[in-house]
Specification:
By secondary structure, this protein is α/β, with parallel strands linked by helices. The protein folds into 6 domains: 21-55 and 418-443, no CATH class; 59-187 and 399-413, EIF_2_alpha (Alpha-Beta Plaits), CATH 3.30.70; 233-361, no CATH class; 450-691, Rossmann fold; 693-768, no CATH class; 775-864, no CATH class. It is built from 28 helices and 17 strands. The strands form 4 sheets. It has an 8-stranded mixed sheet, with helices on both faces. Strands 1, 2, 3, 4 and 5 form a 5-stranded antiparallel sheet that branches. Helix 4 crosses helix 6 and helix 15 (491-502) crosses helix 16 (526-539). The chain starts with 22 loop residues before the first helix and ends with a helix. Mean pLDDT is 76; it is low at 1-19, 71-85, 470-475, 689-706, 740-751 and 814-822. Residues 182-216, 371-405 form a coiled coil.
Length: 867
């Protein structure tokens, strides 16, 4: 069973997976640990002051070096310069990181003979390595932003020694730079000379191999041979194409001629024959003759000699044309054979030429490879030769060279003044304290607000009880000092009156509700809450029985009666005593108590007996409300044995102590036993701001019974006057726990309202005419004293006699009358049983039965009529 969403596992998340940062928790932690930064800040300031006074002052000397930019000649690179006079951030960082190194520090140690200076680094006879480490630790190099100035800073307790060290380090750095540049120059030149020789040998070798290959082929120019062969092959390709086209044309004409071999007229219809020169001229001549004949026919008749001559000439020409067509057909066949022979010859010549071209190209491949190698070797040789010439022409080969810009002067103080040191240390301590408060607030997962409790557990908070002096913290606080008893006007007392209303029995249960207050792991304040709730219920006029069901660590008996080991619940459950013998009266109005009783070896088994249900039945018959204080459910199983018999379950959470995990575990255990929690009580709440009671917040005891108190009230010390209850409550404060020792008698104390004046004097507001001094009151006291005396004669102790008689009178005050002994209900039988036990005790005290019954009934009746 789960009552709320699962908790977040994030360390920095709120309870129940809520806000990742709980402001309320932070404020509470800050309020609780406000002293932490207030303590750490002065301590840190004192430490800073001591440090400033005891530490040796430090002086800093600065030497400035100018970084000059030159035309760049990259060292040992054949790719050429990539920048011209530029100094990149990488170059600057390299200079800064390499400027201070052990080599330069060792040179400074030797140059200044620091080994001969005792206590230079705090040691009488430091070694060279110690001095080198000391110089490196106290020397810093940095390039001024936006400039080419390199600052060398040296810290030392003596300003002149700091100046000497700074200048020495600057000079050592510049010397180191010159040595490095000179070494780089020599290495670069040597490298380039070796590279030039190697590339020159490669170039000579490549050219020799090409000459040898050309001599082997017997050709001066391989490329020219390739071009000639390629041009000839191209010409043969063109001729082959023309021959093939001619052959195809002749083959087409030949196929047509074969179809009309002897038909001259049909042969003339073939285009290749018609286009032949002899045939074409004859056709043209025939056309001319036909035209001439047509003209003659228009002029002459057929028999005209001119016409006959023209026809004869036309016939001869046509005959010649037909013969010519046959001759042309025979000539085409001969041309086709010649075209085929020509095409075959060209094809053979083309194949031969293609072989020659392939051979020449194969021979040119190796030649081209050798030529490209020569070109590559020549380029590399020329580049290396150029770089060598550049290196030899440069007097300085590095991008940056160093020159002293400003020698260091006497050092200036860099250690903070005493005031600054104290201020910084104090602020550091303050922020450390604030950080610790924030860390504690984040790590604290306990329940501190009503919202977080309801979100984590899924049930309503019935009341939030604010912290009341030591009442919520001190586990041994006497009962008389509880807020509902001591100060009915305080916020804690009002919280319990709120709980009294919220803990009313569920709908359907009209009377005699049983209220159980239970905690998770102990020390939540269940006894404190149970006792105050019982008193609040009694003050409302309800007969209330407070039962201490924590048989392992009982506390109510010691708090209320300042005693231990008297008969109580455990004795009743084991059958040692009857119910009336364990009822004990308290200073609280309408409140009786049943203590835990004699310790028992097996309390869980004892609480699970049927005798507990019998006890509960007897209690509900005699009291309007039964309030149980119980053991924590996650520690022992005692409470789980009887929790299902209670109508209202109030789960007590302790502010700043109970965690959601503990509460959920307890809820699960109760749920397994079929118990549903009615609501929670958030106890010992630390208010973020002082609680001020308005008119609506004042206890009902003051405003509903104003006639019960006499105003105005005067302070006996400062003589200040309080004209009304409103002035009295608003202008006074809680009395504090020590007030109870200044008044006599619990019964008197419970009837008073006590407040503390601004002059720190206690003001007791007694009720007006609280004691009934009338004749009826005197008769009640006389009847009670007579019955008490008779019960003591029967063998009862005074406390036992008083308890039995008060129980009988309280029972009959609102319910018994003269006809009560004739009722047949279970409640009537229980009341009759108590009545009979007291009656038998009176008879045992040497009072006749008739007189005893008369006096007892008379006492009950006059007790009913008491104000």
């Amino acid at each position: 069973m789960s009552n709320s969403p699962s908790d977040s596992t994030d360390l920095f998340s709120g309870s129940g997976g809520g806000s990742p940062f709980d402001v309320a928790t932070l404020l509470f932690t800050a309020r609780r640990l406000f002293w932490l930064p207030l303590v750490l800040a002065p301590l840190a300031a004192i430490g800073g002051f001591v440090f400033a006074k005891t530490s040796t002052p430090e002086y800093r000397a600065l030497a400035e070096i100018r970084l000059e930019s030159r035309s760049m000649t990259p060292a040992a690179s054949l790719s050429g310069p990539t920048a011209d006079g530029a100094m990149s951030p990488e170059d600057q960082n390299t200079i800064i990181r390499t400027f201070v190194n052990p080599i330069m520090a060792r040179e400074v140690v030797k140059k200044l003979k620091l080994g001969e200076r005792p206590y230079f680094n705090g040691k009488a006879h430091p070694s060279e390595d110690d001095l080198v480490a000391f110089i490196m630790a106290n020397t810093k190099a940095n390039i001024v932003v936006g400039t080419r100035l390199l600052q060398v800073a040296v810290d030392y307790p003596d300003p002149y020694v700091a100046m000497e060290l700074a200048n020495a380090m600057a000079e050592a750095g510049m010397k180191y730079d010159r040595d490095q540049r000179s070494l780089a120059l020599r290495e670069n030149v040597q490298y380039l000379e070796d590279e030039v020789k190697k590339l020159e040998a490669n170039l000579v070798g490549s050219e020799t191999r090409l000459n040898d290959y050309t001599r082997t082929l017997g050709s001066i120019s391989i490329d020219q041979d390739v071009n000639i062969a390629a041009d000839k092959l191209k010409d043969l390709n063109m001729r082959s194409t023309e021959a093939r086209a001619k052959r195809l044309q002749l083959e087409s004409s030949y196929r047509e001629i074969q179809a009309y071999r002897e038909n001259s007229d049909a042969l003339l219809g073939i285009e290749s024959i018609r286009s032949a020169p002899g045939v074409a001229s004859l056709i043209s001549k025939i056309n001319d003759l036909k035209g001439n004949l047509a003209k003659l026919l228009k002029r002459y008749r057929e028999a005209n000699p001119f016409v006959i001559q023209a026809r004869t000439e036309l016939a001869e020409v046509e005959k010649t044309l037909r013969q010519q067509a046959l001759d042309v057909a025979k000539g085409i066949e001969a041309d086709l054979a010649a075209a085929r022979r020509n095409e075959e010859g060209i094809a053979a010549e083309k194949a031969e030429q293609e072989g020659k071209v392939i051979k020449v190209k194969e021979e040119s491949i190796q030649s081209n490879v050798l030529r490209r190698q020569i070109d590559a070797d020549r380029l590399a040789y020329e580049a290396a030769l150029k770089r060598l010439n550049e290196e030899l022409s440069q007097t300085r080969s590095q991008l940056v060279m160093m020159q002293m810009s400003g020698p260091a002067g006497p050092g200036y103080m860099v250690s903070m003044s005493t005031s600054k040191t104290v201020g910084v240390a104090g602020l550091g301590g303050l922020f450390l304290g604030l950080g610790l408060i924030a860390l504690v607030a984040q790590l604290d997962k306990t329940i501190k607000t009503v919202e977080s409790a309801e979100s984590a557990l899924g049930v309503s908070v019935l009341s939030a009880v604010p912290r009341y002096g030591p009442a919520s913290d001190n586990p041994g606080l006497p009962f008389r000092d509880y807020p509902v008893m001591m100060d009915r006007c305080c916020a804690a007392a009002e919280a319990f009156r709120t709980l009294r209303v919220a803990a009313e029995p569920p709908v359907g249960i009209e009377e005699n509700a049983v209220i159980l207050l239970v905690g998770a792991a102990g020390n939540e304040g269940t006894s404190f809450c149970a006792a105050n709730l019982a008193v609040a219920l009694g003050q409302s006029g309800q007969r209330t029985l407070l039962v201490d069901a924590d048989l392992r660590r009982s506390s109510l008996e010691e708090r209320i009666f300042d005693s231990v080991g008297q008969y109580g619940l455990s004795d009743y459950l084991t059958g040692r005593v009857s119910f009336p013998n364990i009822i004990r009266s308290t200073p609280g109005e309408n409140v009786d108590v049943v203590t835990a009783g004699t310790p028992h070896a097996h309390p869980a088994e004892l609480l699970s007996k049927e005798a507990f249900a019998t006890f509960l039945e007897e209690a509900r018959l005699l009291y309007d409300r039964v309030v149980f204080d119980s053991a924590p459910v996650t520690v022992v199983s005692d409470t789980l044995r009887f929790a299902h018999l209670c109508q209202t379950i109030c789960f007590v959470l302790r502010f700043g102590k109970t965690t959601p995990a503990e509460a959920k575990r307890a809820f699960e255990l109760l749920a397994r036993g079929g118990v549903k929690v009615t609501g929670t009580v958030l106890n010992n709440v630390s208010p973020a701001f002082p609680i001020k009671l308005g008119h609506q917040d004042l206890p009902e005891e003051v405003f509903s019974n104003q006639g019960k108190f006499e105003f105005p009230v005067h302070c006996p010390s400062c003589n200040r006057t309080y004209d009304s209850p409103d002035d009295f409550i608003h202008q006074t404060g809680p009395p504090g726990p020590e007030w109870s020792s200044n008044v006599s008698g619990w019964s008197e104390q419970s009837e008073r309202i006590v407040r503390r004046c601004n002059c720190n004097t206690l003001i007791v507001l007694p009720p007006v005419m609280r004691r009934d001094n009338s004749s009826a009151g005197a008769k009640r006291r006389e009847a009670f004293a007579e019955l008490m005396s008779t019960l003591e004669k029967s063998g009862l102790s005074r406390d036992a006699a008083r308890t039995s008689l008060l129980l009988t009178l309280k029972m009959g005050r609102s319910e018994m009358n003269g006809e009560a002994h004739r009722e047949n209900s279970e409640a009537s039988q229980q009341r009759r049983k108590l009545y009979d036990e007291v009656l038998e005790r009176l008879v045992a005290g040497r009072m006749s039965r008739a007189v005893a019954e008369t006096k007892l009934l008379h006492a009950i009746r006059i007790w009913q009529n008491a104000p």
